[in-house]
Request: fold
Amino acid sequence: MIDQTIQQQVLARAIKDAAFRQELLSNPKAVLAREYHVQMADTVTMRVLEEKPTTFTLVLPPLETAMQELTDADLEAVAGGLGQDFYHKGGGIGG
Reply:
């Protein structure tokens, strides 16, 4: 929905600008429309979450997306993974 470059710009600005961050949390559609000319349909709900150091957020894809079969290219993109050691040596969830 949002171009990755715009998303990166929004995140970088939200880290540096507390007022922007608060407005983004309160009214994300208006902020994206005004600052980045991103228009979202009224039928789209947008949530901005502020993670805390003790919180891990897992975002699931829409069910219809999750039920689609992966292409060979999708499988190649994730082949290899991070490996079990990633989670046991402090690099993974809760680490």
About this structure: The chain has six helices and no strands. Residues 4-88 form one domain.
